[in-house]
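Quick one before lunch.
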Amino acid sequence: MKRKVTKAVFPVAGLGTRFLPATKSVPKEIMTLVDKPLIQYAIDEARAAGITEFIFVTSRGKSALEDYFDNAPELEAELQRKGKTDLMNVLETTNMDSGAIAYIRQHKPMGLGHAVWCARRLVGDEPFAVILPDDVIAAEKPCLAQMVEAYEETGGCMVAAMRVPEEKASAYGILDAASDGIERKIPVKGMVEKPPLGEAPSNLAVIGRYILTPDVMNTLHRGKVGAGGEVQLTDAIAAEIMEGRPVHGYRFEGERFDCGSKAGFLQATVSFALSRSDLRDELAHFLNEIVPVARAAE
Ligand code: UTP
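Model of the uridine 5'-triphosphate complex:
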């Protein structure tokens, strides 16, 4: 019987250079989409998928993340005194049961694969999820929950996949699909990280949600450096295929925003704000006024 996926690794040790100077002192994952930090969206998605153990791979300068998930007794007492139960309920979502969350340090930013490997002792000998908080996915059924359901049928490793324009493929890990890729669960026969322009085996890109078997940790243990001089998670998953173990891409339902880039972050901000009844009208009115002005200035 397949083991249930109850642990998730959140690699948050990257430098976030695309958001400098903001990320000089504020972790990228604390940056806010409307009124929730990126990390809260990731945690909510993990919880909805049945995750009960949260493993953060952090680095120097990320202590704001640890504080975010801590209790805030003075703030809570003050809200209670003022009878602000709605805000108390909001705060509740940031609380973690004691022992449910663990922090591990990655001492040098040696790549996503290396960051995941840093969590090996906490992951142990069971399948686990990996969530990259800068990929935010708006979906009716949260992306990881969709994947966990699909994984119950496939087992093995599973990566979230999305079609991207051909000219953008060299920014992603790309799947070599063993089928025409129309179905949601796509068997994979190869994977390549950031292929040179024109050499991508498909237009199916890997997005920051994974379900991995502990075998992947053994490959990562070798510390083989790949594209960009970093230990690539894609390479370790590709090694699973070489060993004859199943790997599937999962074409999720939903809209993904690349919040690791400025344009993606801004798009997510507008989109999430427009989906909120308390903000929609005012923002739509503002956009209707400024968009024609911006067009005219082009
Ligand atoms: P990115 O490629 O977005 O890198 O990492 P980054 O450092 O966060 O941001 P930029 O490119 O400098 O702006 C993808 C994910 O992998 C994690 C990051 O924290 C992010 O969640 N990561 C990356 C690590 O945890 N460690 C690493 O060594 C590299």
